[in-house]
């Protein structure tokens, strides 16, 4: 029969187990970051190849494909280490489902690459075919952040997820830019898309900035003042002023690609620092938890050995209950006080942990709200994702409200309008 | 190497496992309800025995003690069936810790009962010695509700938890009434306590009403119109008008106990219905999930058997990716569409589940907020729990705001005042 002390120990072990599964999660997130980076490069360069139709780009493209394949293999190996029987609820179910998407998308890469090399696909379609698996991979990172059990690690994962998301938008911007510059101009839709990508990046990096460590924030500020970024901003202005009537020199495509790639490569370095930091944090936490667990076990063992006379213990527990104050006058009182102290301390710590975790997950919950509001607008007005996002963004600006608040209100009123609200 | 289909299946199994662990939880909650009920009766009757000093009550008390012990044994057996290694995070850790409290309290019962029989304890202290383990048991139910993975079951558990909490307050009211009537009067502190218990009950039953099924709500409304309740309200007025100067006949104690017990017994019947309903809901869900899982497995098997030519599948997936619309013109397109359809459907369902679950847990989160605000006020002003609650309640009334909103604002401002807020 399990005793109070057994359950106290099981509580600790349960925390420990949560941290251990986080360790694999952090490793997975690192692998995913590297694969996304490789796919982003391959996506951008594929557009150069498709746009220029020049065979001299072929070898470079093959190198990038080989990189992607190597990274994909690492992700697949990481997936294979996940215990498929470990799931205990909808949280894990969501994670598994997103992994299933990713694996399903992986199966299409061989055909995509064949068509690119045969020039049998439009740049826009190639971009899309690369962007979906990347989005799927980011969803895996999102679920990893959403199911992490440690507040500090959750904060790191939230910062990292938003950074990766921002970097992906920068990658899409690179591809969109290459497509437009190669064509010689950007039509109004392409220009609107460029503006959307810039705004959406800004929002991601703001959240990154809210959640990242000061050291990483400093590095990010330095990067933003870099000459590459200034040059890119200039080229973006050229793109936004272009039209079919006044085309741009297609040679700018390669310059744009180089500059955007330089910026993204520096982002990747920062991302690598974050994954390393995450990994070491996770290991530090596990060591700490292991040492706490050992101490805890020793303490409980000591308490249990003192606890041979059951009736004496009962008197002690009861003393504490009935008076609360005068129980410290004897060894019995002291002992009992320490069982209660350990219980109380553990309880307060777990409560605080829960509050911090909720706090750390706030931006993830806001993202879910925004996604739901976007989906609602897309369905209601037959909009694209970009357009739905812009609609929300305009509403937020008009009302001087936060995007998440507008999304929440929109969803509330939608319930009311559709008669789903509780009366 | 696990495939997309393996992960899709694992997602389903993971949901299934969550439901299975819910089944044990629901059983545990039922056992806990029965133990609490027995302890409540024993607590109330102990006060009659302690107040009257009459030996004729002894046999009745012994019967109630035997009931409590039998129910306690069932709870302990239920605890023993919990897999102590199944924990995977802070959620389970909180549950285990609350169970440790309860087991620790159980050890004090023998001594408590010995002292009651020797009349070596004040009624107030005896009440407290029973009330703490009951509070501990209710905390276990709260954690069970907070970690349930199904929105509908969570709603039932929230309704049940609040009902049990309200019933416990009714039990405390019974004990407080017996103490005062036996003494012959209620001093101002005792009267304030009676008022607090009435208000707090009201709040619990309001939440019950928000979350319970219509059938249960109807039963509850009927109970409230019952003659017993009217009689009790009349006696409560007598208590609130009493003073040391104008005492009441101590014989009212037994009448009060009988009436309050009748009311609580009817509550117990309603509680039993809720636990039964919970149990059958849980089994229904498990059957449904099992049948879904079987269908899913068959579907995936069919898809996998069609999926022998990898390059063909790649073409299909890719077709879908690049055009989204014209992929349904072949068996390949159809097949691929169904893998994607299953993935999308599963994803949408899991998302909706997450939203519903959050919705169902809202009142639990509000309770956590209120508890934190209460703890803050108790610490800040050295108040009792009752007094801190009244302070919050008055603030809510003055501002015409909900209790949870006042608690949230209080906590926000406390952070600001203590310089913890993010600037």
Automatic annotation (TrEMBL), chains A, B:
- Annotated PROSITE patterns: ANTAR
Tell me the ranges covered by the ANTAR domain, including all copies: 350-411
One example of the protein's molecular function in GO is: RNA binding
Question: By what name is this protein known?
Answer: ANTAR domain-containing protein
- Its source organism is Halopseudomonas pelagia
Q: What is the lineage of its organism?
A: Bacteria, Pseudomonadati, Pseudomonadota, Gammaproteobacteria, Pseudomonadales
């Amino acid at each position: 029969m399990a005793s109070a002390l057994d359950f106290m120990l099981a509580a600790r072990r349960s925390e420990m187990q949560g941290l251990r599964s986080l360790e694999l999660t952090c490793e997975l997130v690192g692998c995913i970051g590297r694969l996304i980076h490789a796919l982003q490069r391959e996506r951008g360069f594929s557009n150069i190849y498709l746009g220029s139709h020049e065979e001299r780009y072929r070898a470079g493209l093959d190198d990038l494909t080989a990189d992607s394949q190597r990274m994909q293999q690492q992700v697949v190996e990481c997936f294979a280490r996940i215990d498929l029987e470990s799931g205990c609820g909808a949280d894990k179910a969501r994670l598994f489902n997103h992994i299933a998407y990713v694996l399903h998308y992986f199966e299409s890469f061989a055909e995509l690459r064949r068509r690119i090399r045969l020039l049998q696909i439009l740049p826009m379609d190639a971009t899309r075919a690369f962007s979906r698996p990347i989005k799927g991979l980011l969803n895996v990172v999102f679920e990893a952040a959403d199911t992490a059990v440690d507040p500090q690690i959750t904060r790191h994962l939230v910062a990292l997820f938003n950074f990766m998301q921002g970097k992906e938008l920068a990658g899409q911007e690179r591809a969109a830019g290459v497509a437009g510059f190669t064509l010689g101009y950007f039509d109004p839709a392409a220009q609107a898309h460029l503006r959307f990508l810039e705004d959406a990046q800004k929002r991601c990096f703001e959240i990154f900035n809210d959640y990242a460590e000061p050291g990483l924030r400093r590095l990010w500020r330095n990067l933003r003042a870099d000459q590459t970024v200034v040059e890119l901003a200039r080229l973006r202005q050229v793109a936004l002023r272009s039209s079919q009537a006044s085309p741009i020199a297609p040679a700018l495509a390669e310059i744009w690609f180089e500059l955007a790639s330089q910026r993204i490569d520096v982002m990747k370095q920062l991302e690598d620092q974050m994954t390393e930091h995450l990994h070491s944090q996770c290991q530090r936490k596990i060591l700490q938890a292991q040492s706490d667990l050992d101490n805890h076990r020793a303490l409980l063992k000591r308490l249990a050995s003192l606890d041979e006379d059951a009736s004496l213990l009962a008197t002690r527990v009861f003393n504490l209950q009935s008076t609360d104050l005068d129980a410290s006058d004897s060894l019995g009182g002291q002992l009992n006080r320490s069982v209660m102290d350990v219980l109380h301390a553990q309880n307060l710590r777990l409560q605080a942990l829960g509050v911090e975790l909720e706090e750390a997950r706030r931006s993830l919950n806001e993202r879910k709200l925004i996604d739901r509001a976007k989906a609602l607008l897309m369905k209601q007005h037959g909009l694209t994702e970009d357009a739905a996002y812009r609609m929300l963004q305009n509403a937020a600006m008009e009302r001087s409200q936060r995007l998440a608040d507008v999304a929440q209100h929109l969803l509330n009123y939608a319930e009311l309008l559709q008669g789903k609200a509780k009366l």
